[in-house]
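Course assignment 3, question 2. Fill in each field.
Student: A.L.
Task: Predict the tertiary structure for the chain below.
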Amino acid sequence: MIEIQNTFRLLGDSSRAISNLRFFKTGEGEYGYGDRFLGIRMPVLRQVAKDNIGLSIAHTKILIKSKYHEERMLGLIILVNKYAKCASHEEKDRLYQVYISHFKYINNWDLVDVTCPHIVGKHLIDGDRSVLYQWALSDDLWTKRIAMITNWWFVRKGDLQDVFNIAEVLINDEHDLIHKAVGWMLREAGKKDMKKTEDFMAQYYRTMPRVMLRYAIEQYPEIKRQKYLKGKI
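Answer field:
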């Protein structure tokens, strides 16, 4: 384990690490406050995760709890890769439980977005999704974002009801990262079923946060997009 971490950390770039401090809003009072970076690019990180899919769960948990952002991402992607490869429901449930018990460390938007659909979404596609509604009511920013972004897996399969329901729960949230998440999922839902999505939009577009609206209608034809922005739909 120590060897993996030492080798991984040598892949970092100090200038990229400094840039990431600004990009991921790590200043005092910002959402990523206190996070630390190694400056490792995602393609490199994904290759390291692929090469270490056999890492034990115990050691994967150590990575997920790391003080370094990229090591947390590495551990989470290893978990995603393990989930994709395992065949038994029991093992998948074990990996799912590891994931949801480590929400404390899934604490920035990229960690959420890259991983939660591929474990939580996959696991709940044919299961009880009531936990998503509990998470959507959380006081924690990242838990709420997981509740929303998990829907990306359902939307891919044409299963849209929960995306609308959870969007409704989060429609008045105060944080722009939730506005963006909801808008993004509504945009993806529109690619699958525009009528259902526009039925939802007709009810909420005048009162939803502007960022959420802009994300949701990003790929609409320009004339229709302008009508939404001007409240004339």
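Instructor remarks: The mean pLDDT is 96. The longest helix spans residues 69-85.
Grade: pending
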